[in-house]
Amino acid sequence: MSIHTSDSKHPTYYVPAQSSWPIVGAIALFLIAVGAGLTVQGTASDGATGIVGKWILTIGFFVLLYMFAGWFRSVIAESLSGLYSRQINRSFKQGMSWFIFSEVMFFGAFFGALFYARIFAVPWLGGADNNAMTHEVLWPAFEAIWPLTLTPSGITTEAMPWQGLPLMNTIILLTSSVTLHFAHVSLEKDRRTALVFWLEITIVLAGLFLFYQAEEYIHAYQEMNLTLQSGIYGNTFFMLTGFHGMHVLLGTIILTVLLGRIAYDHFTSTNHFAFQAGSWYWHFVDVVWLCLFVFVYVL
Questions:
Q1: For the chain, how far is it from start to end, CA to CA, in angstroms?
Q2: How far apart are CA 6 and CA 157, in angstroms?
Q3: pLDDT tens digit string along 66-79?
């Protein structure tokens, strides 16, 4: 249903019909939570629990993707039908802004864990601030340096240098932000050929970033002995870079969908919030990587 003004073609607000997509999304998140829990439990106990957990986790992700595809298809159809007003557009912008804010808090928690380990936990364990007894009792031979390349169990690892693949990926991701900006400007000026060109370049750069990050992980596991079991350094390294990689993958999917929608002329120079929202998300991912590169690799 919709509430109309005197001009029935421009509703002041559109209220969609009842939808099954929220419950589908809830089921997907439930499966992901249960699958993740069983997978983690399986790594610490029997392998059968972990296998079942991985299957449930995979099914949950596919159900979530199905929900996203179906729900977004409905929103796109409503938008193209002219059911949305300026108030709806403001609601979308506010919703995307709050989503990005929640992502800032998400990564803020992980960076907070990194800073706490480096600034407080490691010095305390090394005997700082009159914690000599804690140092002697828990780990007498501990050296308060970062990154920690020696775990309590005696596993030795290497620190990932910022040169090489990390620096290359930083250049790639920052360049992709520039090319996406050029694509956005081209859309605003209704230059379709330039829009497609710059967006395709952005997607290629995103794919290169993911490829080189996979290469970095293989190098870390096979040659540096840097794994998730490598103490607090390995945990924070893979937690931050891994979750960021997932966001890059999601952003790449978003950009690819936008390219497909451009092929069907879904956007105009004045009405293209979906493209703008995808651009906001991608620039946010780039800023997070820049902070990650400085605090995880360089410092």
A1: 56
A2: 70
A3: 999 998 888 888 88
